[in-house]
Design brief:
six-stranded mixed β-sheet, alpha/beta, single chain, 13 strands, Purple Acid Phosphatase, chain A, domain 2, five-stranded mixed β-sheet, globular
């Protein structure tokens, strides 16, 4: 830069300072206290603290059930204890390609640990690995089984359908179903019926009521680029199963509803934050880390503590609970 509005030149320090401020604004890193008319952080009224536990992947192996129990005890031992648990999907290791007996063992273990170790209110979100039998060859399913697809997960989790909404502490919560079956696999998107429901649900929410959206697969994510060698062809190629392929459509809907403030997800076993058009997207790691083999890339086994405030702002902190990989 060689000049400014006053005709003088900017020093290197001024250039760095200006660039840093611009980057902070673009990433949404400036605090609410730095915005005109916004309350200082200390003045915000917290209305609820959440624990977001995603990608648990319970299995009989590697003492995964004990790991989930340890995580739940860690959540409930917090000095400032959460009032609600949100699960983010992939409760069990896998049912996409598992036979009926294997799926039963996993769900029974999950239910047993949750009953014994969790005393907090809980709301569930279904993940792709919770959907039984999409890989019909390996799961030996025909598609006509009574618990095929999402039915088994819905039964265990007490859900009447895989997406829904509810209200709590002055916020509106929307739980989405990210898993759209394709051939013998899936991609991340909402089917037409669910998108129409989402559009109608948001239309019913008063503009001054902040909205939190929970999905298993991220709607928008930076970590999706890092989960795998997605640049190896020389161009970034992020699979549709890594991040919502209908993100643009969902984004366009959110723009019409500026009270949508926060989106929580998992799936990638990585932690990131994306601030885009007034919405903050958090991908919150994995309780099971690298599928109970330790950490995955830079992400250790953990969960997120999410604070929601009356003014529609939030804070989110990823917490590790000290679990070490077991044989």
């Amino acid at each position: 830069m060689t000049g400014n509005a006053g005709g003088g030149s900017l020093t290197r320090r001024e250039v760095v300072k200006a660039g840093s401020a611009t980057a902070a604004l673009g990433l949404g890193l400036l605090s609410a206290a730095g915005s005109e008319g916004s309350p200082a952080v200390a003045d915000r009224k917290r209305v609820v603290r959440l624990a977001h536990l995603t990608d648990i992947h319970v299995q009989p192996e590697r003492r995964a059930g004990e790991g989930l129990a340890a995580c739940l005890r860690h959540v409930q031992s917090q000095g400032d204890r959460p009032e609600l648990v949100l699960t983010g999907g992939d409760m069990i290791m896998d049912s996409l390609g598992a036979d009926e007996a294997r799926v039963r063992v996993q769900w029974e273990l999950f239910a047993k640990v949750m009953k014994a170790e969790n005393s907090l209110p809980i709301e569930h979100c279904i993940g792709n690995h919770d959907v039984w039998g999409l890989n019909r060859k390996d799961s030996r399913t025909t598609g006509s089984e009574a618990r095929y697809g999402k039915k088994w997960a819905m039964e265990v989790l007490g859900l009447s359908r895989p997406y829904r909404s509810f209200d709590r502490a002055g916020w509106h919560f929307i739980v989405l179903d990210s898993t759209f079956p394709v051939d013998q696999g899936y991609t991340a998107k909402l089917d037409d019926e669910q998108f129409a429901w989402l559009k109608g649900d948001l239309a019913k929410v008063k503009p001054d009521v902040p909205v939190l959206v929970l999905s298993h697969i991220p709607i928008l994510s930076v970590a999706a680029f890092m989960d795998g060698e997605n640049e190896k062809t020389g161009d970034w190629q992020v699979p549709g199963a890594w991040m919502h392929i209908d993100a643009r459509k969902i984004k366009d809907l959110f723009v019409k509803h500026p009270n949508v403030k926060v989106c929580l997800s998992g799936h990638l076993h990585l932690v990131d934050r994306v601030d885009y058009l007034g919405v903050t997207y958090f991908c919150n790691g994995a309780v099971g880390g690298g599928w109970w083999k330790g950490g995955y890339q830079e992400c250790e086994p953990g969960y997120a503590l999410v604070d929601l405030y009356a003014d529609g702002t939030c804070s989110c902190r990823y917490v590790t609970y000290g679990w070490k990989a077991q044989e």
